[in-house]
Amino acid sequence: MENQFFVDSEFLSPKALAKKHKLETDPSSRKNHMEYMPGMEIIESDVCGKVMEQMKTYDASRYTVKDVKTALEHETCSIEDFKALLSPAAEPFLERMAERARLETSKHFGNTVYLFTPLYIANYCENYCVYCGFNCYNHINRMKLNMEQIEKEMKVIADSGMEEILILTGESRGQSSVEYIGEACKLARKYFRMVGLEIYPVNTDEYKYLHKCGADYVTVFQETYDTEKYEQLHLMGHKRVWPYRFDAQERALRGGMRGVAFSALLGLSDFRKDALASALHVHYLQRKYPHAEMSLSCPRLRPIINNDKINPLDVHEKQLCQIICSYRIFLPFVGITVSSRESAAFHNGIVKIAATKVSAGVSTGIGDHDTKYNGKEADEQQGDEQFEINDNRSLDKMYQDIANEGLQPVLNDYIYV
After folding, report:
1. Are the C-beta atoms of residues 298 and 332 closer than 8 Å to each other?
2. With the C-alpha atoms ordered 294, 300, 301, 304, is the resulting torsion angle positive or negative?
3. Is 220 helix (H, G, I), strand (E, B) or coil?
4. How, if at all, do strands 259-264 and 217-223 pair?
């Protein structure tokens, strides 16, 4: 692959440094971020147009206290109501929104909270995304687990009691081929009831293959729905193609996946517009594929290796809570995941209001679950993490803390027959 030199090199060559500098300073040197690359499937869909029309015309500042009160009085939350709930005018109503969100969550999910853990099997990447610890120009320890190592990691996780796993890779077809990921899915099916994927977007036939290998659902972060900001942040690689990424969930559903998950990385751009677009992406696909399970993740930017200055842009816990409550009121049937990017205190609070799924026993490094779970010496071959986590609780600790809040922790709710 063209970028493999950059991924594996300990230090960038003068030529590589020159290319990196040019990508950063000369927009004309970058490929058109709206133009598909060879091999990328183009599907006919009206979802993107609907989402972007709503997002581009959204002016959060025009909504008033009256609009917020009206939205909270409606039994069913319309798109206009949702826009009002996301606006600054809704901030004084956070307690009322939380109570409404709690009632909706209780009505549709009871008092259950689902638990899962991610497993990173490779951190090689061919993209240059300026905010990501895996980006191809970042000097980190790169690693790709072989099948024996993957199975060892999975067994450690399964022995902890976990029944749902999310398999992740860096975005490199060269190092993490679809076939490689498929073999990992087959192994995961031996140990887990639910298998999710968070990998680079692929075509419909490839999603169909991965589903046959054992994958149940697919998560794709759009990162930001702001196409201009997206262009400035994703300077090179397949991830640079914004529309191909947008349609990933729909291709996954066409490929037979049972469920799909959506997210913006809050803090990259205007978080209110990104939250609006994320929810509308779900809203329109939900109507098009009513049989599918859909969920929203709510991640904020976290510091990454070699750059400790990256932090959420104006997205504080109060704003995050507002977004999550708005999601629940607008999309009462949709799962909401809060990751270990957030603190234990925030987790403990939000699961009582709107979140239905949390990660536990998390590591974003490569090949270190045996170290983390069993206290063994670190392996020099371990790969570096993608970002810093904020909640380090084990599965047992997370399970007990959720139970102590009067909620029911759930490890699995799906049985194959």
Report:
1. no
2. negative
3. strand
4. parallel
Helix 317-330, helix 94-109: angle, nearest 10: 50
Q: What pLDDT, on a 0 to 100 scale, did the predictor assign at position 132?
A: 82
Name the amino acid, one letter, at 11.
F
Q: How far is CA 13 from CA 2, 3, 9, 146, 306, in A?
A: 14, 13, 8, 29, 18
> Structure tokens of 294?
């859909």
Give 26's Cβ-side CA count (13 Å radius): 8
The predicted pLDDT at position 361 comes to 82
What pLDDT sits at residue 6? 39
Q: Which two tokens stand for residue 171?
A: 């975005």
Tell me which amino acid residue 325 is. C
Specify the amino acid at residue 296: L
Is the pTM higher than 0.85? The answer reads yes
CA dist., res. 359 & res. 114, Å (int): 8
Q: Is 55 helix (H, G, I), strand (E, B) or coil?
A: helix
Angle at 384 (CA atoms; ends 382, 387), nearest 5 degrees: 145
Q: Which residues of the chain have pLDDT under 50?
A: 1-10, 309, 386-387
> What phi and psi values does residue 54 have, to the nearest 5 degrees?
-70, -40
Structure tokens given for 306? 């070699």
Q: What is the dihedral of CA 362, 322, 130, 36, to 10 degrees?
A: 100
